[in-house]
Give the backbone structure.
Amino acid sequence: MKETILAKFAEVFGDDKEARAYFAPGRVNLIGEHTDYNGGHVFPCALTIGTYGVARKREDSKLRFYSMNFENLGVIESSLEDLKPYKEADWTNYPKGVMWAFQEKGMQIPCGMDLLLNGNIPNGSGLSSSASVEVLTGFILRDMFGFDVTNQDLALIGQFSENKFNGVNCGIMDQFAIAMGKKDHAIFLDTADLSFEYAPISLEGAKIVIACSNKKRGLGDSKYNERRSECEQALAEIQSVKKIATLGDLQEAEFEEVKSAIDSDIRTKRAKHAVYENQRTMKAVAALKANDITAFGQLMNASHVSLRDDYEVTGIELDTLVEEAWKVEGVIGSRMTGAGFGGCTVSIVKDEAIDTFIAQVGKAYEAKIGYAADFYVVEIGDGPSVL
């Protein structure tokens, strides 16, 4: 891949003298969905697929962007003096947002750059192509200009840029999983205080399979922000009767005691998901530590049911992929992953069942939905790197 992107950089920008190549992974969350902005736990891992970049300093303040994934857009130009989100700037609002965030945090970028990207994460899939671009951009800025920031800082800067520059009220999980990824480990992260531990993932005789629904969705214009505000309102209502900082502070029994304070059936369901999903995530990590992959799979399945019935973020595409997966012998667990409303499912599938899984689920999905899903057998990889 390095040779390919350097050659393309030379073709687009004249030559590749003094250009450096980089990589930042995508991520998948194994369990713990829509808990990261509710003060709960998540359990994501970085993947070996992600975003590749080539960057080079310029003598002026001009920014030139090119994506091999959107070649029809050609080179999109901007400058360090004009770091504002424009609709016509398209995907470049993500790297521009990170540059803006660095400057907002007092790190002045001394010169412009030429930047070429090539991602092998399916776009709009829910595997965090945007967060991958954000962390990659931050990593490039640190490498290029020597800014004193840690990988954890890169995650926080990426989240800040997505919240404040791109207007998506995302939690910290995506950027954190990408910036802090570790091969063959998932990250058990408490989003309330960013304490975390690496948990080894040992799936002897099984693999992680991602099924991409190919239903396009945009986070900003989906119901993501609506769900978030429903949870915030439910939290405020519970706080009138119980002293808690986040929904993640509650255990199941405590929630059942105070849920009558929530003045809406819908908000009660949303808060219930946040509380129960957080507890499920903690139980899932404990199951993994006890080498009980069957229990882990059952908790994944329960997570999907809650996302479908209480949080209502799945939709016919994701439900079809998961419900068909549950019918296949050798599937240990399957659930939607990411924000929902399209995107992907994540399944743990025994090696001998993978071909059957892809064929059977793929056939049923196309018959019901009218177009095909894509399947990826993935591995857990490291965080960002210089190639």
About this structure: The CA atoms of residues 66 and 72 lie 10 Å apart. DSSP finds eleven helices and 13 strands in the chain. The chain has a mean pLDDT of 93.
